[in-house]
Amino acid sequence: MRRYSEKGKQVELASIAGLVAIFVFAELNFSVFEHIAATLTQSYPFLADYSFALVIGGWIGLSVYTLRRRREAGLETRARIAVEEDFELNQIRDSVTGLPNKRGFELVLGERIQHPGSDTLHLIGCEVRNIDTILSVHGARAAEDIKSSFANALVSLCELGDFAACSNDATFYVIAAAPNDDEGKFKVDSLVETLSSLASAGIPANGMKLQSSMTFGLLNVGEYLRLKPDTTVEALMQRLEFTLSTARRQKHGTIAHFSAEMESSLDQRAKVEASFGQAILNGEIVPYFQPFIDLATKRVCGLEILARWEHPQNGLIGPTTFIPIAEDIGLLRTMTLSILRQACISAREWPDDIKLAINVSPTDLRDNLLTDEIINTLKQTGMAPERIELEITENAIVEESGAISEAISRVKALGMSISIDDFGTGYSSLHHLRILPFDKIKIDQSFIKDISTNPESRAIVQTVIALGKSLGLPTTAEGVDAAQNQELLAELGCTIGQGYLFAKPLPAHEVTTFLKNYENLAVGLSQVA
Predict the structure, then answer these.
(1) Distances (CA, A) of 63 to 21, 22, 50, 67
(2) CA-based torsion, 494, 498, 502, 508: positive or negative
(3) Residue 445, CA atoms < 13 Å, CB-side half-sphere
(4) Which domains, from first to last, does the chain contain?
(5) Distance (Å, rounded) from C-alpha 389 to C-alpha 369?
(6) Most buried pick, 190, 269, 455, 504, via CB within 10 A?
(7) What beta strand segments (E) does 339-457 contain?
(8) Could you tell me the end-to-end alpha-carbon distance of the chain, in angstroms, rounded to an integer?
C-alpha cells in the first residue's frame, strides 16, 4: 500500500509539471495566448485593453482549478489508502489485546517454517476455558480485562525470537524459540506454569478478582518436521488445535502434548468426518439401550438410549470415537434425533411404564428448534412426552445456567423430564439444584466403581443421595458393576442402578427378551424374600 501511495504522488507531480510545460510550449511556439487575445479584441472591441490579461487570467485560473482538483483527488486517494491499510491491519490484529490474531500468527508461522533458522520451535496453544461463563455472568468488560491480562503476561514472557497472538475466542498462540530442544521445553514449561498460576490466583476484572481456568496444547515443530518435512502451516495448526481439544476433554489435567498416537487419531478422525453424515442417512448409527433398575423393587424402570455405529466394514464402533467428532462438525443434533426416532419406534413394543432417557447437548437444548423437532418425532412415532427423559451434564449447568434454566422449564412444560448427568464431576452449587427444576440426579460412575473400598467415594455418594432426598429427587447410580456395590447403594437409599451388573447396552431386538427375563427374575427374587 505504501509503495502504491508513493507512486500516486509521483504521478500527480508529473501531471502538474506536464500541464505547465504544455502551457509554456503552446505560447512560445504558437503564441496561443496572443492569438486568443486578438480574437477577443475583434469580437469585443471594448475588451481591447484587457483581452490579454483575461486570457492569461483564464489560463491561470484553469491551472489553479486543475491543481486544486489534483490536490483534492490526492487527499481522497490517501484517505482511501489509509482506510485500506487500517482494514488490512485489523485483519491480522485482535481488537481487544492488540496482539496479532490467528491469521497473523499463521502468516508468521509460515515464514518461520519456510526460512528456518538455527533455533528449535515449539507451538503453544492456550485457551481461557471459562471465558464464556465470565462473559455471560460478569459482562464483556470483565472478559476483555481477562484477555488483556493474559496478553500482557504473554508479552512479558516472550523473548527475542518468540511470537504471541490471540484469537477472538480468548485462545492464545505462541511460537517459542530456543537454541535446542531442552531449553525449548524448559521455556514452554515455565510459560505454562506462569499462566496457570496467574489464572488460579485470580485476575482483576471490572472491579472484581476473577479466577479462570486454562487449557494448553503443545507441539514440538522440530520433531514434527523431522517426521513430515513437507508439512504446511494448515497441518501444524490443525494438530495444535487437535491437541488443545484433547486437553479440553481430559477430566484430570489441562495439558496435552502432540504425539504419534494423536497423529493416528487425526487420520481416524478424517475418515470418520468423511463418512459420518452418510452413516446417519444409511441407518448405521443406531440406538443401544442400557436398563435402569429400581433398587428397591428390582424391576426395570427405564432405558438409556446410547449411540452405536454399526460400521459395515469395521463392525461396532463405540461413542467415544464418533460423538466428539459429531459435535465438532455440527451433526450431533442430527444424530440425536435419528437415534431418538429409532428408539421410539422400537419402544412401541415395550411396556408403557418404561421411560427412555437420552443425553442432549446443552447448546442444542437452548435452541427452541431442537425442542420442536423432538416433539415432532414423538408425535410421528406415537411416543408420549412423559416417557422421555433428557439428560444434561453438570458442567453445562455451571457454564450456561441462565439459558439452561429457560430451556429446562420449556421442556418440562411439554411433559418431558430432566435429569442432571455425571453429578459430582463439576462444580454446580446447591443454588443451581434448588432453582432448576430437575427430576433426577445421576451420580457419576467414577464414584460408584470403588464405593466399597474408597471411603472418600462412599462419603461423596452418601452426601449426594442425602441431597437428593432433601430435594425430593431420586438418584441414579451409574457404573454398578459389582453386587456389593448394589447392596451398599440400596442401603444408602439410592433409588436406581445402572451398569454391567444388570446388563450391558443392548440392541433394540434384544430388549424385549431382556425385559421379560428380568421381570421373571425380579418376581422370583421377591417371592424368595
Answers:
(1) 12, 11, 20, 6
(2) positive
(3) 10
(4) 2-91 (no CATH), 102-258 (3.30.70.270), 290-305+355-528 (3.20.20.450)
(5) 18
(6) 269
(7) 355-359, 388-393, 417-423, 440-443
(8) 88
CB neighbour class for 183 (10 Å; exposed up to 12, middle 13-18, buried from 19): middle
Q: From the candidates 304, 373, 394, 478, which is the catalytic residue?
A: 478
**Residue 214 in 3-state DSSP?**
strand
Cα–Cα distance for residue pair 305/295, rounded to 1 Å: 20
Cell of 515: 425385559
| 225 beta partners | none
Around Cβ 463, how many Cβ atoms within 10 Å? 12
Residue 306 has φ and ψ, to the nearest 5°, of: -125, 135
Give strand pairing partners of 198.
none
Other C-beta atoms within 10 Å of 487: how many?
12
What one-character-per-residue DSSP string does 129-172 give? TTHHHHHHHH-HHHHHHHHHHHHHHHHHH--TT-EEEE-TTSEE
Q: What percent helix, strand, coil does the chain show, rounded to 5?
A: 60, 20, 25
Taking the C-alpha atoms of residue 301 and residue 525, their distance in angstroms, rounded to an integer, is 17
* Catalytic annotation present for 144: no
How far is it, in rounded angstroms, from Cα 520 to Cα 529? Answer: 14
Q: Is 201 exposed, middle or buried (0-12, 13-18, 19+ CB in 10 A)?
A: exposed
CA 148, CA 140: separation in Å to the nearest integer?
Answer: 12
- 187, 202 in Cβ contact below 8 A? no
Number of neighbours of residue 365 by Cβ within 10 angstroms: 24
> Are 274 and 329 spatial neighbours (Cβ–Cβ below 8 Å)?
no
